[in-house]
Amino acid sequence: MPITPTKSIWKDGLFIPFEKAKIHVLSHAIHYGTSWFEGIRSYQTVKGTAIFRLDDHMRRFHQSLKIYRTALPYSVEELSEAVEELIRRNKLSTCYVRPFALRGLGDMGVYALNNPLEVYIAAWEWGAYLGDLAGEVGVDVCVSSWDRITPNALPSISKASGNYMNSQLTKMEAIENGYAEGICLDTYGNVAEGSGENVFLVLGADLITPPAASSLLPGITRHTVMKLAESLGYRVIEQNIPRAMLYTADEMFLTGTAVEITPVRSVDHIAVGRGKVGPVTRAIQKAFLRVTEEGEDPHEWLTFVGPVSKRIKRK
To answer: Do residues 74 and 62 make contact, with C-beta atoms less than 8 angstroms apart?
Structure first.
C-alpha cells in the first residue's frame, strides 16, 4: 500500500520536511537490521481525533530496544506528545503512525552499540491492510511452509525490523499462491502468528489464542480483543494451538494495528465454520468500533489530539 507524502516527519526532537528524512547508505541498520518500530492508528471518532493506545505502544517501543541493550533517549511521554504534534502538523485524523529507531553511520561490523541511535516518527493516511472488504467478508489464508523464528534465536517479543524477514517470506508465499495471508507455526508445529498479526480461534463461546511462548509478538490489539471479549462474557484462553485446530474452529480472526480485527473465512481452502463471519467475531468487531468510531473509552485507551504542546521543539 503506497505511502502518501506528508508535510513533516519527527526526528530526534525536531520536525523536518518529509523529503529530507534520509539516512546514510552505510548506516548499521541497512547492513545488519538494527532497527525497531511500532505501528499505531489514529481514528476520527465522533468525539474528535483519537490515537489508539498510544502510551502502551510507546512502552513496548522502549521494551523492544531494551532487549538489545539499547535505551531510547526519549520518554514515553515525550514520544507520545511528538505523535500528537505530528498529527496536528500534517493535518491528519484517521491515519497510521510509525515510530522507529535505527543504528546509523559509525562502525561497520556486527557489534552495534558504538553506532549512533536515530529516532523518527512518521504518520500518513492508510486504509485497510488486507483490503477494503476484509473486515466485512473475511479473508482466505494458508499455513505457511516457513516456521516462525524460535524465541532463543531471535526474540519475537521485540518488534525488531530484522524479525520481519521471516514475515516477508511468509507473506510472499501466501500472496503468490492466491491467499491474503499466511499463518506460521512455531518450531513445535503449533500456531504462532501471521506475517504481522495475532491469531484467535472461536470454539463455542471460548476464544483461544497462542501464548507468548509460541514465538509471537504479544500484540496490543490482541490484548484489546482479550479485554473486549471478557467484557462481552466470553472466556479467553491462552494455549498451544495445533495446526489441525485451524480446520475445526467455529470462527477465526486476525488482530493487529494494521488489520484491526479481520475475520478468516478459510484456511488452506477449508472453510472456517460456515465460511462466513461468525457472531462472536462480529460482536468483538462492534465492540472495537464503539471505541474507535464512537469514542467510548472505559479502558482509557484513547488519546485525543489536543492543543499544541509547549514541550515540543519546532523547526
So the answer is: no
Task: Please state, as a whole number, how many other Cβ atoms lie within 10 Å of the Cβ of residue 37.
Answer: 17
| Known catalytic membership, residue 7 | no
Is residue 115 located within the same domain as residue 264? no
Structural domains of the chain, count? 2
Grid cell at residue 206? 471460548
Percentage of the chain beyond pLDDT 70 is 97
**Of 235, 236, 273, nearest in space to 252 by CA:** 273
Rg of the chain, C-alpha, whole Å: 20
Given the residues 22, 66, 159, 227, select the one marked as catalytic: 159
Cα distance between residue 278 and residue 251, in whole Å: 6
Question: Does the predicted model carry a pTM greater than 0.90?
Answer: yes
Assess whether 101 and 153 both reside in one domain: no
Cβ burial, residue 265 (10 Å; 0-12/13-18/19+): buried
Q: What is the mean pLDDT of residues 175-200?
A: 97
State CA 7 to chain mean position distance.
24
Q: Do residues 258 and 282 share a domain? A: yes
Q: What is the pLDDT of residues 134-179, one digit of tens each?
A: 888 999 999 999 999 998 999 999 999 999 999 999 999 999 999 9
